[in-house]
Amino acid sequence: MTDPGILIRGARIAAELSERGVDPRTAPAVDLRISNGVIAERGQGLEARDGDRIVEADGLIALTGLVDLHTHLREPGFEQSETVLTGTRAAAAGGFTTVFAMANTMPVQDTAGVVEQVQALGDAAGYATVRPIGAVTEDLAGERLSEIGAMAGSRAAVRVFSDDGKCVHDALLMRRALEYAKSFDGVVAQHAQDPRLTEGSQMNEGALSSELGLKGWPAVAEESIIARDVLLAEHVGARLHICHLSTAGSVEVVRWAKARGVQVTAEVTPHHLLLTEELARGYDPRYKVNPPLRRDIDVAALRAAVAEGVIDIIATDHAPHPLEAKECEWDAAAFGMVGLESAIPIAIEALVQPGHVSWAELERLLSHRPAEIGRLGGHPVALEPGQPADIALIDPAGRSVFDLGRLYGRSVNSPYLGMELPGRVHSTIRHGYLTFDDGVLVEPETVRAAAAAARGRAEAQAGEAR
Q: Fewer CB within a 10 Å sphere, N or C end of the chain?
């Protein structure tokens, strides 16, 4: 069965914009025809066919669908903050076609049953592929390893394990987790935070925390855990991923480890690339996050590390909270920010416009490399015929105020509300169907029907292959 298809006309291809600071209009305009979930044709002057949905993409940049290796979808257990449906709606609005869902749910994603449930909820919603992350330890308690092998062998085929929100502080447990994950090419993603050094911490430790009377979160609490874990990863020959790296010192540790050949990768959040501890002066809990916003010199070091390739990916650490958890005194407020819908504007502001990365490099940071680290099968490697049609169309032009109308999740704890930011996501295509269409979220019923049709095609193709 052939679906009506989509014809994208006149887009610039991010992979062809490899020079930093180049005007995207210098690249040739390209048409992409999408049919049956794949890119069927690429060229110029392609003719529309009966029933084709035409997307006029003049001035837009086409990237392979974005992949977030660090998303908190909250379901099951914390549906007042987010659900898989609302979280993947936010993902679609941000250009993401795949999100990796962190394990700190209730019950915790520490068994095969729970990770399969989360994946099934994502399949049913249809806005993005949901890949569950398994907990490293039972109930995130840091005492016993979880059912790592069972989760890896489940229908969810988990390949990323993390206690994010909590550090795997016990060195022996961390070693055992690395050894276990190595046996099936998995990766352990560490939330690097020494709990003894950060008890009661509220913001970055330094002169400003003393001035404001807030307990400081010292950089060494992050850097010491990363140093220990890269040595453990080297010792056992396993893959290690560092979540939300935030300090200049952490960059140096990761650079040193990579020079030694350690299999370590690192992510940075959009907010750590743009915002600084100075925002804590107003005691606005929107800026309370873990790890905390750091100094100007840390932000500069992080941007330079992205440009150099020491930091491998951008990941949002999308952390939704209900109003009552954020609209309160700083000390009582929850840590975290939503970030799926704002990732592209912040990346343009912090990295592309200053010339730190090209559009091709941004595609690698937000799509190709996170897919590689997460061992995400079926993700497009290029916008070429035969590749899966997971595509983000970005309008890089202009600036606009980021407001509540740009948020599609259940929570609104964004640090960017009221800020003027560049660019926007124009459209998102997942498995060959639109989930976000010229700035408008596609209706859930339409997305669910398209997702079901895509699953049917995939099952039919699998049957033919057998």
A: C
